[in-house]
Batch of 2 targets.
Target 1
Amino acid sequence: MNIIVVGLSHRTTPVEIREKVAFAPTEMEKPLRQMLALSTVNEAVIVSTCNRVELYACTRDIDNAIVQLRCFLADYHNLDNAVLAPHLYDYYGEDAIRHVFRVSSSLDSMVLGEPQILGQIKTAYAYATEHKTAGLILNRFLHKAFSVAKRVRTETSIASSAVSVSFAAVELARKIFEKLEDKTVMLIGAGEMCELAARHFVSNGVRSVLVTNRTFARAEKLADEFGGRPVPFAEFADYLPQVDIVLTSTGAPDFVLSAEKAEEVIRRRKNKPMFMIDIAVPRDIDPRVNDIDNIYLYDVDDLQGVVAANLKERKKEAKKAEMIVEQEIGQFFRWLGSLDVVPTVVALRRKLEDIRRSELEKTFGNLKGLDEKERKAIEALTAAIINKVLHHPTLLLKQSSNDATSDGYIDAVRALFNLETPNPDNEIKPLDHFDGEGKRSHG
Amino acid sequence: MSVNLLLFKITLLLYFVATVFYLIDVLAQKDVAGKMARWVLSGGFLLHCITLGARWIEAGHAPMASLHESLSFFAWAIVGIFLLFDLRYRLAVLGAFCTPLALGLMIFSLGAPREIKELNPILDTWWFPVHVSLAFAGYAVFAIAFAAGIMYLIQERLLKKKRFSGLYFRLPALNTLDSINYKCLSFGFPLMTMGIVSGAIWANMAWGGYWRWDPKETWALITWFLYAALLHGRLTVGWRGRRAAIFSIIGFLCLLFSFLCVNWFLSGEHSFRALAGG
């Protein structure tokens, strides 16, 4: 059994086309059922986000399945196959596993290390289990992808640094204050980014928020939202000595805070450090304030610089993550390979055992004079013959599971002994169920 | 090679390995290296304790009399105090600044003459180890403040200039470094004060005078005033952050000067020659 991936992403496809092939999350049943109905597809999962649309499938016939899936994607969305084709990529074997592991670990994301993608794949998997289109292999496969993503997250710091401007502000504050719990934030003005940053600060532990605005009513409203305190705009400077973090984004044409005023504030604070974030354009705070000891002033461009530096840092971490992915691929690929051999060996043994049982019954029916000891001996003899006969084929099948010859052997064995192909219903089983069976067949 | 020298060299080797691990942690950003460094350094410290103990038994007096001994003792104190701080702060990057200092002192110590000197009998009282231990404990605490001060200045520069290199990610928050500075000051200053007072008592018992203005005493007093000024400034007018960091760096350089240069080049009761009784 093989895992294949057909799809497109932000790397290969512009948004105009991506939006045309996206699947609506409200109606996943129809495409999943149609995909599973394809003659070559045994299991199906569809991942659809704004940056990628991917079909994961299990098949015995890689080449035809890829063709069918490519057509399915175009046909389902009423697109010309030729238009879509150049944007599509497909993977099978180890490459398919590597691809999905990389996607779930956010190594293929537009923003490296962003956390959403894992949730999106989990949702896709939930749809597939809901509609019973993911079987034994994709179940196991996606669970593995989730655990690889988790390992990447815990063993590298790929997602630890902020890549949004508002979160970068929180991170900088941590580099100055260490703890934010006992700090006070003041919001001057009410820009969207400012509010977002304030929200980040509050969710990261800041308890005390002051809000000021030229329109006092707006300050009151915003203060209510953060559980903070409104301050009249004319008097905000008087409150500055008790403020550790200042966020400004007013529409004022001039500086709201001069260097002289800031100097006085820091003196009254006995040099306790202050972090000022000026998101307004034109700027609200005199840039010379950054030259004052113990005040750290950042404007929008500076914060963007932090984001760029963090992204660079993530790229470094991504290399470690790629190594983790490589380790996990090998392990999963071997499991996948052994999967076909095990049920075949079990079926073969059962077939021979059935023949032995029925022949023994016949023989014992004819030879009524046998005593218990003789019956036992005959039973042992026949069992030994079967074991001896099966010994080498079993060994060969198990050994072949590590290389490409296994499919050929499995086909031959199934044809020669007329073994029925496994019932697809049996294959679609929850994960823990499989584990139990796997143990039994080994024992 | 005597057992003592062997112990000393293994200690030195362990300090070297710990330094390398700490530097790998900081420069290559590998947390594992920092954890290994902590174990190696702790092992080195344990061995160093044994080395000093053996030397004490061999010499018959506290191993703080010669340049070799006091350098080694200084390094031991720095590592010990650092490990204490490490229990609380868990900062590999602090180790990357402190262990090279200890390592440097150890290498220096290895180069100094190792023979055991007879202590001048009038000096050989319990005040000798008490005075020297207190002084060195103070030195070691100030060495941590020195390291934290350098780290503060680097991190402060990076934040002001908005340059986010690897070191930015590795160095702790400014407030953390400043609180280390304050802790060091509030432990180091009493230790240093007690060191000076115990020295005066010891001098009075040996020579019949508390204070003789020998170069070491003068320098110690200058350094003491420096730290006193910083402590006072911190508590009253908020001398924190950059200013505190700079003070700690200057203070420690004064200490180093009074320890090395005064003992070595200038004459006085604190030179090792005087200690050995001529």
Target 2
Amino acid sequence: MKKFPPWLSNILMPFVGIVVTLVLWQAISGRVVQSRQPDGTMEESKAGLLKDLPGPITTWEKTRKYVVEPFAKREELDQGILRFTWYSLVIVAKGYAIALALGTPLGFLLGLSKSFTKMFDPIIQILRPVSPLAWMPLGVVLFSNTGRAANELAALFTIAVCAMWPTVLNTAVGVRAIPQDYLNVARVLKLSRWQTLRRIMIPATLPYMFTGYRLSLGIAWLVIVAVEMLTGRIGIGNFLWNEYNNGLYTSIVLCIVTIGVVGFLLDRAMSLLERRFKTA
Amino acid sequence: MSAHVDISRLSKSFATAKGPLVVVRDFDLRIARGEFVTLIGHSGCGKSTVLAMLAGLSKATSGGIVLAGRELAGPGPDRGVVFQSPTLLPWMTAFENVMLGVDQVFYTAARAERRQIAEYYLTVVGLGESMHKLPGQLSQGMRQRVGIARAFALSPKMLLLDEPFGMLDALTRFELQQVLLELWNRNRLTALMVTHDVDEALFLSDRIVMMTNGPEAEVGDILEVPFARPRDRQQLLADPEYYRLREYLIEFLNTRAYTLKGQTPRSHEPEAKPDGDGKPPAAATEKHSKPTSVAFTAA
């Protein structure tokens, strides 16, 4: 058997995987069957392994208007899928920025000081697994007196507080992993604390920080759907929830696919950045 | 005239579960200005610990070091250190690595002058063409050249070399010994080098200090190296005196390094590296240096 060149198989194999998945999806999804009743009328009923799961073909037919005009704004709740995604991305970007701004210094403190770690590591370990669904109501309460901004602030709070932990922990690990040799260079040259931080510690920690940043971005994107469902902010999560309430299951599938693709692209972009900062 | 470097009764011990472990005991040494002294001894004998104390990276348990009339306290750029591995910062180019120290020492000089200093030393060690490459793009030997340039560029009062060529293959090692010697001939910096390579010690030093085996390592014997400078390796290898001194050093390492401490040879196990310098165990390094010596006698 002839082997494909790697670049071709790198494209071909995922393509095959996608096709196989679509076929399987189509096979298990529900379809509409028409049957002639004894009284001569035609009746439609659903059949299939998962009767209520829309298949890929149905999904495409029912949701194409969101996809072919991705930036259209027909009504507040009837907009192109990428326009909804854009709203969500903006709020995620803000919350993510807060998460990094808080998480990076906190990670440095944890990495630098053993006593600080002993003091606060248990707290972090307790707060870290708390679901965004649990943080969200607290956020709403905390910012309820801020008027029109309340929803947005609550959303930012939830994203930041959920997404910062990988940044905190990876930065701390990175700081602890700085080779003693590098620190000895700083000591031998008598670099000031600030110089040591800027010229040695931060560059040495960057690869770890970016691993944290990548994981944090994944979480921030994960959280947005829950946040939008609860706050009713316009965005892809909110669209998904509305369509669920309207019984339009094809739109749910479209949202899931979109959220997945966007998450994948964000992760790719971050790992490209991460590789650029890989040193040593 | 008092010595440029005066090390007196320097001791280092580590606390262990079984009580203090004395690595170095009462180490005494005076080094004249412009002298190149080598510490030789088996791995784990504490010679690197002595160097680390001079560099200020390890604190002496007792005793003191006076450099150019001032008692040393902690590390500082008045001593240029060449580490065993080059320890270049991988996110900076060779030039930036050297500049890091130059900026620190010559902060009163104009930026152009500082650049000149870094460029000068990098060119002298043979990196004129590749000084703007990252360490990852340089060979191991070239990286160590940067390490040497970095130490010299500080114009330190003293040069400390911790097995600077230990990680290089024999050919590169010869090359770099030559580079070091040429650079040293220009400024005659007072230098203390740690090695376990007998030929390296003879080629480079004015005096060789032989250390007994640890724990409680101390100065066992001192050898004056009479060869005139500047030295030429070929001339040195043609000199019968060279082989006499070489035999003397090897005899010390094989026998007296143990017996001076009342230990029997061969039963010796390398210590569990209390000085933490990450060297390979004695047996491995012995193997490493043997082929070199064969090459020498054949030459």
